[in-house]
Amino acid sequence: MAYAYLFKYIIIGDTGVGKSCLLLQFTDKRFQPVHDLTIGVEFGARMITIDGKQIKLQIWDTAGQESFRSITRSYYRGAAGALLVYDITRRDTFNHLTTWLEDARQHSNSNMVIMLIGNKSDLESRREVKKEEGEAFAREHGLIFMETSAKTASNVEEAFINTAKEIYEKIQEGVFDINNEANGIKIGPQHPTTNSTLTGSQGGQQAGGGCC
Amino acid sequence: MSDSEAAAEKQDPSPAETPGYSTDVAPTRKARRRPDAVPVAEAEERPKVEEQLPKTSSDSTVAQGGWGYWGSWGKSILSTATATVATVGQGLTQVIEKAETSLGIPSPTELSAQVEEEHKQQAEASSETDKATGDGPSAIGGAMGMLTSLSSVVQSTGKTVITGGLDALEFIGKKTMDVIAEGDPGFKKTKGLMIRNSTLSQVLREAKEREELQTAETESSDSEKKVVAHYGMLFDEFQGLSHLEALEILSRESESKVKSVLTTLSGDELVQLRDELENIKEAFSLVEFDDEEVEEKKDGTEFDRELMKALEGLSVSTTADKLNKVSRKTVRRFARVFSVVSVLRIQFPVVHILIFLYMSSPLFLHSCVFVCAKSHQEVHAAAIRSLAELTARSIELFHKLAEMILFSGGRTETSALSQLTVVLCKEISLLSKKFTSCLTTAGSTEKGDVLNPLITGVFLEASNSASYIQDAFQLLMPILEISHIQRRAEPTQQ
Lengths: 212, 494
Hints:
The complex is a heterodimer.
Chain A: E1 5-13, H1 19-28, E2 41-50, E3 53-62, H2 69-72, E4 81-87, H3 91-95, H4 97-107, E5 113-119, H5 131-141, E6 144-147, H6 156-173, E7 185-187, H7 192-198, H8 204-210
Parallel strand pairs in A: 1-3, 1-4, 4-5, 5-6
Antiparallel strand pairs in A: 1-7, 2-3
Chain B: H1 2-11, H2 19-30, H3 38-45, H4 53-63, H5 68-78, H6 83-97, H7 99-104, H8 108-118, H9 136-148, H10 151-157, H11 166-181, H12 188-191, H13 200-219, H14 231-237, H15 240-264, H16 267-285, H17 291-296, H18 300-317, H19 321-344, H20 352-359, H21 362-372, H22 376-408, H23 414-442, H24 448-489
């Protein structure tokens, strides 16, 4: 289906925190308790609607294993959004966030919207990281924060969609140059009928302001 | 031979209307490298270039029949450094050969009359060329030479002809003439048509977007929309584009790493490494396989053995155990698609393992439906879908291989990779042949102008598919290079 924008996402974080499960829940609306180890990167895509516009999310689900880091880093570039995931039942996955964040900031564009996700919120009894700690970390580093459960689907939609909303707002504000694909944003195929209002290819930025 | 010539001459109702083109293009004919062009070229040339006949027809006897078309095509493409560029160049060469075709347009079935003569298995039909219309395999054979030539040109001209038919050929023919008219005998400029600064995934993405646009446009008016298959959209749906993009990233990064390593070396060390890298490069550019051999290997038995051999060669080379497991998963997913092909060829016993894995997949049901389908549109849609999926899975396989090579640092034989590429391309062509054969059967009551564009479309996409696979193969080269460099730097590890 035609879309107004395409956003590239990456999902990063330690191995076993539920990155692939979050993706599966988001794209297929199902939960798979046992997942094969992700090699390099796998993909998912889904269409969402923001502000009446169809937006296609193209999601790059990276391998969490340390040994894959040199490969997966290559995939960060050109992402508009990142989901940085930790496991609320494993303190070490929270402790590694700083490294992940540095890595992400270093290998991607500076405007990338990062959503911090504390996953496995259904396992309250085994919680090792308080929600407040996640919130504090996010505040400190300028991230959006959310606790999710890929198992119960709680907040999964919201995590992906809120990230997209943030990106969309940045486009409206002109922070993102949507004509530069290195920002992880692509403009969808434009309909000839709407071309007159969107003023063709070179008027991309004006179009953003123009229609609001 | 003379029978077939006579037959074809009788068949061709439209001698050249534009002799000017013929003189323009004559020199380039000699440059052609793909024997598959011959049958079609003959058909067009005959009416006016009689004196060239003896030479070309003797060529064609060698090239005719079975999968020599694709075999030799694959060979010539693989023997050049960059598949895409080569394809464009060759594509154009052949489009020129077919300039008259695109203006005079003999239908695939007409062309088949002549091909048929030379097909051993269809010898009995040779005296009834009139009845050739509607005969699947031969029609396909004739169309093949013409259609394979168009693949990349379609991409590069920027006009979507994904579902187009013969008028697309016409467009391309004219477009090509324009290019030639610019005075570019070496075709250097035309190679640039492939949009020099864009990557394959970009080209594909653009094509897909055009399709999306078209789909959206026709949505309201066309109720048959659901049976219309768009290759690019499907390719993307199967994540082919994403895997390609990721593979391109890895390839680019590896390339720049190789370059920077080379700048740090000097003297003998540099010379030695250069030599070693040259060997890898050569392995990529000198991929060949015997044409005649290909013709003999028409049956599935041989193919399945080849595929298994190629895959085995690869999995042996990956060191880490768990990687092997995951690679098997990819291979399995991919093997499912392969077995569609095998189902089509009714080679059940040979590929029982693949079939077993595949039985549970929705695609299997899909292909069953199509086999019994009555509607030729459905067959066409299934064909495009299968091609898109097989290609996307192939690209995925190459991408996963790239990641594993980089990750494991294990030794990977280029020959296994090239063998895989060759096998995949052959399979694409077999798939398309089977589908078009089905298509001819399903649409036997339809007129040629309904059926021919559909057949054309299938071959067009098959040809594109093979190009993408070959391009993906080329993307692996820098990855093998950097992997080689890393391995020699740490001889004690691994």
